[in-house]
Every structure is written in structure tokens, then in C-alpha cells.
Amino acid sequence: MADAASRLTALAEDVLGAKLPVRLRAWDGSEAGPADGPVLIVRERRALRRLLWKPGELGLARAWVAGEIDVEGDLYTVLDRLAGFLWERDAETRGALETVRDPKVRAAAKTLLKLAGPFPPPKPPVEEMRGRSGTRHSKRRDKQAISHHYDVGNEFYELVLGPSMVYSCAYWTDTGTLEEAQRDKLDLIARKLALKEGDRLLDVGCGWGSMAIHAAREYGARVVGITLSREQAAYARKRIADEGLTDRIEIRVQDYRDVTDGPFDAISSIGMAEHVGAVRYREYADILFRLLKPGGRLLNHQIARRPEPDEEAYEVDAFIDAYVFPDGELAPMGRTLTTLEEAGFEVRDVDVLREHYALTLRRWVANLEAHWDRAVRLTSPARARIWRLYMAASAVSFERNRIGVNQFLAVKTPASGASGLPRRSREWTE
Predict the structure, then answer these.
(1) Counted domains in the chain
(2) Per-residue confidence at 213, pLDDT binned at 50, 70, 90?
């Protein structure tokens, strides 16, 4: 078992055909790899058993959540260096890593088995979502998935998100605070929707009520906000009462499929469509189209992935699905645009905000790290580690153009063709 770090490094480099870009420190105190930069620490042999049982991302994630692997130094640097080494391999190499059919992988598995120690593998950390019931993206199962992610305590989200309590990409115009950038994002959306006094706005996936409050307070809109999270709804209602806006805003614990009291002048859907799922996306677009009055506007703010060469082979990220957003799915930008058009919308503008989300995530990670001890007390050490990894890895993914985020402004254009939008698509930013 001596010099485990060198043996693990040689193993990884042989399988992947490239030099390990970070230094590795093993449980026996041995180290190997480049002397400069951060260190990836394998604290427990148990982490290797997780990799043998679940090769690839899920095994690594379980080891991270359990504290069996860690990082010494800058987490972003480690993730950025490992991105090319692990994430951005060609499809054939990535597939080989997760199957014993490849001779190199079979040989590596035998060596790893000797290093890993006795089986059976450890149980997954408790924060992993298991026991999902019902059909994927049924109302019942969607409610379970939303509760897993959002009902972990509003105080925890206050630490991470800050006073704005906005859990989506901010809009960074100049140097400023996270709160200013989130306010600017909400205001950008309100201007794109051309909100005015008395307009009815449906805020789908209203979160903790920030968009609803901004629309009612700054533009005089009458807002219906819907969420599947009871904790979010309770928090939003208290904020609304504190603002004296209960006569203008109604918050419901309600599925978007159950909204029947249209028409609305405008609909905002900010960071919610990722939960809808490919099998439901056309239904989602049809429902929003039906709920709008003729001439009404939709602002759909949504994370997107890069298109796959073989879309049929697309698989949901295993770590995100198990620990962060169960049943969440990302679609390429083109598919979202096409589906909105198929539902009847006229898509008038697409605003790409990819770099803005990377900046936002880095601020959220900084908030979490600054309040680490309290975050752990409010949730658990494992939950805090999940959020730190998912947000930091997501920031790197946005920076490396693995994922993006886009605002689609669409109109339910009436038969006359009078959309009501300015001829210049960016007049709302002036």
C-alpha cells in the first residue's frame, strides 16, 4: 500500500492518456503530480470503493459529499484543471471510463480493487435523493423533487443568496454588489415585459417572491406567484406583508399545470423551466401561451446545455440529479426556441447571459464560504459540501461554455400582427 498517490496517478494517466493536472495526496501521506498549484486529497480508501461501485461522476460526488476527497488550495483551479482531464474527453473515452469492456479500464479496476480495500461499498451519503415515486415529471414527483432542493431551510438560502433572495443569474452591468446586480436583472425583466400599473403578471416558479415584489412595488403590477415549495411560499408571503403589498400579490403553492385563472398580461418564468423536463416542455409552452392574453409577453429565463452530437444519447448529470436538482433537465437553446414557436409564440429576442451566471455563482460560493460554520449548523456538513461543489463546478461550466443561460422574450402575437414591441429589440435597456 506504500506510495498510494503515485499508483493512483499512474492509473489515472494510463486510462485517460494525459498527465494528471493537479497534485494528488493519498491517505498514506504520499503525494504525486505537479508541485505547483492546488492538491486533490484522497482522505479515505473508501473513496476508491465508491468509484469502483459507481465509476465516473456519481462515485466521485459521493466521495466528496462524504468528505473522503477534498481540495487544498483554490477549488476553482482544481475544477478548471480537471475539466479538460475528465469532463471534456471525447464521447468514446467518456463511455469507456464507465464500462468494464475496455481493456484498460478492466486492468485499472483490478489495480484499484487492491488499493480500495474490502468490499462491499459504503452506503451513499444520506443527502442523496432516493425513493422517488411516480412517473417522471408527474405532479406528485415534481413536488418531491422541488421539496428536496428548496425545502432545506430559508435561513440557509439567506446565507447563500444574500438579501435579494434571488436564485437565478444576476445581470452585471458594472462593478457592484450582488444585490444591485439582482435588482438590475429583475428590472431588466420588468422592462422587457413592459409592465405598467394594473397589469396582471404570472410569476411561474416565484421562489421567495423577489420578482413579484419588484413588479408590484416598482411598476404597480398585480402579481400571482406560484411555487411547489411551501417554505418558499411562507417566506414570500411574509416579505410581501412586510412590504405592504398583500393587496397586489398572491402567492400560491400550485403547479403551473393547475393555473386556470388567465388571461395574464405578462408571464415571467425565471429559472423554473429547467425543472419541467423534455417530455413536458411542449405542454409547458402550450399552457403559458393559453394563459396569456393576445399581445401578452413571456420572459423565459433558462439554463441551456450545448447540443450533443447524438441527442438520443444525452444523459442527465448524475451528481446534479442525485444531490441537487432531482429530475432536472437542460435543453439546448435551439430546442427551447423551437418549442416556444411551435406553441404559437413569436420569439422576439434572445439575450445570452452566460458569463453573468459565472459571476453570480462565484458570489454565492463566497457567501457560503464566509458563513460556512453557520451553514453547516443549519443543514449538515454534507449538504454544505454539496452546495459548494455544485455552485463552484457550475461557475466553471459557464466559464468554459459547457452550459449557458438565456432570456427568451416571446409574444402571443394577435392575428393583426401588431406585437406591441419596439422595432429595435434593445430599447428596454436604454
Answers:
(1) 2
(2) very high
